[in-house]
């Protein structure tokens, strides 16, 4: 549900009726225009809306003259959903205009109806009508206060606060919440001299316990051929994701990324627009250029003013010397059987603690797997439900030697053909690895929770984490005709 426009009208006795607050949502209006097509009627100016509303409500003239559109016995009022007739060459009918009044206030909004203009669904079936009335009722309760009859000073105070309240409860035209009745939404964190203006991209303020979550994740990809004439390829792509629940309009947070003394510098660094400043040398290091010892190697201080929702603070690449798991795969066709030999070795720099680690050996463009006589030195071997793949579950740890192997034969005697794949034909086969290593990154990049600085009156709880994940991690059969990736990098 969305709102095209919202109005707050003051109807205080002894004073002229006036629009005290109005808000329009251009993005919602564009959607209304697409839905209505040639029957689209735009929202008039505030003064025109005021006069049309007062006329429809019978408040435009003390004498209340007869009007056929409003007072004829054939007219069936649908209050609080009104039908507004706009005159002029670009005029037409605006429906349903929701309006409620109490005391000195009239509140109105025009919800977006997700239906063609020539078709009017029953009001009871329109979710936008009920949501619009809920929004108006919540705003009315906020403006009138707990007693329902505020003095002029209290009403003026709440009207002054209304822009920030509406920004919080109805950002971009979509009602998310209603303000608490009778409360004054003053900020709980004192601000320095002068009032900070809340930016349009920030839909509200956080209130409550301060918590900052920083998660660092690295994805490693690899193409290993096991052939002296083909160069193995691998790359690392890292992201830093943040969720900052910190009080204040524009709180300042600084996250510092650190590398080990012999770590490779971060390359291709890209940051979120909320980052306030950054050393130019950090952004200058590119993977397409030769990385030398003069490249910036940290620490990488990233100051920013966070939005409320989770966001990606930055991303980077890194040139690590070796992939985490080195493997060889040999597949030979002998006597209508495939003879398999696989060896996997975990590099000594990688923690031998996995959340999961699996090796998938697909056999496409063949019939279903029949007989399997394969032995593994560690883990468990299963056949997939579709009988076209061997699944080698390595578990949470490699053995003490950090090496595992698989050897045996597979025959295909199934009656049904398996799936087709042009990259896995005959001896052109591969192993695909899936793994996740918690509390580790291949580049050594980390975020120390003590290095996260938050400039706020409340001391936040800092939570940091990091992980290493596989992505497109292939080990090709060295006896087959494996495809060669173009370019040095897989990114």
From TrEMBL:
Task: Name any GO cellular component annotation.
Answer: late endosome membrane
Taxonomic lineage from the root:
Eukaryota, Metazoa, Chordata, Craniata, Vertebrata
* Membrane protein topology class: Peripheral membrane protein
Q: Which GO terms describe its biological process?
A: protein transport
Looking up Pfam families in the UniProt record yields: Adap_comp_sub
Q: Which domain of life is it from?
A: Eukaryota
Q: Which SUPFAM superfamilies match?
A: Second domain of Mu2 adaptin subunit (ap50) of ap2 adaptor
**The MHD domain, residue ranges:** 209-477
Specify the protein name.
AP-5 complex subunit mu-1
Q: Which family does it belong to?
A: Belongs to the adaptor complexes medium subunit family.
| UniProt KW Protein transport keyword | yes
Q: Which organism is it from?
A: Umbra pygmaea (Eastern mudminnow)
């Amino acid at each position: 549900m969305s709102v095209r426009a919202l109005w707050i009208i003051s109807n205080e006795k002894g004073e002229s009726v006036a629009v005290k607050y109005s808000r329009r949502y251009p993005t919602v209006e564009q959607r209304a225009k697409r839905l209505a097509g040639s029957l689209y009627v735009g929202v008039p100016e505030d003064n025109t809306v005021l006069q049309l509303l007062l006329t429809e409500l019978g408040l435009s003239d003390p004498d209340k003259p007869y009007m056929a559109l409003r007072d004829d016995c054939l007219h069936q009022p649908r209050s609080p959903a009104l039908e507004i007739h706009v005159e002029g060459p670009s005029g037409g009918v605006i429906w349903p205009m929701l309006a409620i009044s109490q005391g000195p206030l009239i509140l109105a909004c025009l919800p977006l109806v997700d239906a063609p203009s020539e078709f009017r669904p029953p009001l009871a079936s329109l979710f936008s009508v009920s949501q619009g009335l809920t929004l108006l009722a919540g705003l009315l309760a906020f403006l009138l206060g707990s007693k329902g009859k505020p003095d002029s000073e209290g009403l003026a105070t709440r009207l002054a606060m209304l822009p920030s309240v509406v920004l919080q409860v109805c950002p971009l035209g979509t009602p998310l919440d209603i303000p608490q009745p009778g409360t004054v939404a003053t900020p709980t964190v004192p601000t320095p001299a002068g009032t900070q203006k809340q930016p349009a991209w920030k839909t509200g303020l956080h209130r409550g316990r301060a918590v900052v979550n920083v998660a660092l994740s690295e994805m490693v990809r690899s193409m290993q051929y096991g052939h002296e004439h083909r160069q193995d390829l691998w790359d690392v792509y890292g992201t830093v994701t943040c969720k900052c629940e910190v009080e204040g309009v524009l709180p300042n947070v600084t996250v510092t990324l650190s590398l080990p003394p012999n770590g490779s510098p971060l390359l291709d660094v890209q940051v979120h627009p909320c980052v306030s400043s950054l050393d130019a040398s950090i952004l200058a290091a590119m993977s397409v250029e030769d990385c030398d010892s003069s490249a910036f190697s940290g620490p990488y201080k990233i100051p920013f003013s966070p939005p409320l929702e989770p966001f990606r603070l930055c991303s980077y690449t890194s040139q690590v010397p070796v992939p985490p798991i080195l493997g060889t795969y040999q597949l030979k066709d002998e006597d209508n059987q495939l003879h398999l030999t696989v060896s996997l070795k975990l590099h000594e720099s990688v923690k031998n603690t996995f959340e999961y680690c699996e090796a998938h050996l697909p056999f496409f463009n063949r019939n279903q797997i029949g007989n399997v006589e394969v032995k593994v030195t560690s883990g468990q071997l299963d056949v997939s439900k579709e009988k076209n793949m061997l699944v080698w579950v390595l578990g949470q740890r490699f053995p003490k030697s950090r090496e595992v192997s698989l050897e045996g034969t597979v025959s295909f005697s199934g009656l049904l053909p398996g799936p087709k794949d042009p990259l896995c034909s005959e001896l052109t086969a591969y192993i695909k690895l899936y793994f996740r290593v918690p509390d580790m990154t291949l580049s050594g990049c980390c975020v120390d929770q003590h290095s996260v600085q938050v400039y706020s009156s409340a001391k936040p709880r800092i939570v940091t984490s990091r992980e290493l994940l596989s992505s497109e991690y292939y080990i090709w059969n060295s006896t087959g005709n494996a495809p060669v990736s173009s370019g040095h990098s897989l990114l």
